[in-house]
Amino acid sequence: MTFKAFWQPLAAIYGENEARWIGREVFLLRYGLSQTALLMGETEHISEAELKGLQQRLLEGEPVQYVVGETEFCGHRFHTAHGVLIPRPETEELCRWIVEEWKEESGKRLLDIGTGSGCIACTLAAELKEAQVGAWDISADALRIARGNAERLGVSVNFELVDALRPPHPTPGSLDIIVSNPPYVCQQERADMERHVLDHEPSLALFVPDDDPLLFYRAIADYALQALRPGGRLYFELNCRFAHETADMLQQAGFSDVCIRKDQYGKDRFISACR
Predict the structure, then answer these.
(1) What SS3 state is found at 258?
(2) Residue 135 — very low, low, confident or very high, per pLDDT cuts 50/70/90?
(3) At what angle do helices 119-127 and 140-153 cross, to 10 degrees?
(4) What are the DSSP calls for 193-221, one per residue?
(5) What are the tens digits of pLDDT across the range 79-93?
(6) Alpha carbon of 18 to those of 37, 68, 87, 136, 177: distances in Å?
(7) Among candidates 243, 203, 238, 218, which has minimal Cα distance to 88?
(8) Is pLDDT at 199 greater than 80 in this prediction?
(9) Gap between the Cα atoms of 236 and 94, Å rounded
(10) pLDDT tens digits along 3-47
(11) CB-neighbour burial class of residue 208 (10 A; exposed 0-12, middle 13-18, buried 19+)
(12) Taking a C-beta distance cutoff of 8 angstroms, is the pair 272, 258 a contact?
């Protein structure tokens, strides 16, 4: 099957540009073929039956990151599967912000709450000098995937099965950094979401009740007030609809230097606060 024969049927669903990109991702990540190799027709040795099977999964709306089983995040390849959210470019920006602020420090103690694939924890373990990194998730499947990603990247992360809404009693001042990309999509926002997200990505990692959109932010902030040392920082990825409500909550809780940062699309997507 040629590259064009693979991606062209996908255009009816995804549009031509995205269909081409999806096709390139399949051939690069699954088979190691560059765009130059695709232009030279180096797909003929691949089983047509196998390619048709992958194509059918894509035609049924399954995200390409699950179809090929991995994605790139902050220059590293992460295994992805149905038990974890697909790492997003916005979350890369969150990691870059933390690295910018802490890259000159050494041996900092960091906790990633709701780690999913481990993309945040593993990236920061790789980028921050001698960082002592821990990561929590409520899903045993997610932790299995995250541990595998840490092994692939050759980084040390202490993964634990913990419910962010029922955390263990913290050791006061034991952490320098807490970071979380928690569930933040309200149930009423389902109607505006793409089907491939709703049908394939884990609802547990996406949704919060309409009447309590800051559920996880409050719980994590309460934990951070005790666990962070004075001068330590808390970082969140946000639902842009509730950025200022989150900032108000953090200030009222006792945090200082609360800073909202926009993502590459100009949306209020991240927040940081000092203990």
Answers:
(1) strand
(2) very high
(3) 30
(4) S-HHHHHHS-GGGTEE-TT-TTHHHHHHH
(5) 999 889 999 999 999
(6) 19, 16, 18, 34, 37
(7) 238
(8) no
(9) 8
(10) 999 999 999 988 999 999 999 999 998 898 888 888 888 887 889
(11) buried
(12) yes
d(CA 120, CA 114): 10
What letter does residue 181 receive in the DSSP assignment?
Answer: -
**Is residue 213 within 8 Å of residue 236, measured between CB atoms?**
no
- Of the pLDDT bands very low, low, confident and very high (cuts 50, 70, 90), residue 227 is very high
- Give the DSSP per-residue string, 55-70: HHHHHTT--HHHHHTE
Structure token pair of residue 12 = 């009816």
Find, among 62, 82, 79, 58, the residue nearest to 70 by Cα: 79
User: C-alpha 101: how far from its chain's center?
Assistant: 20
Which tokens sit at 231? Answer: 């001068």
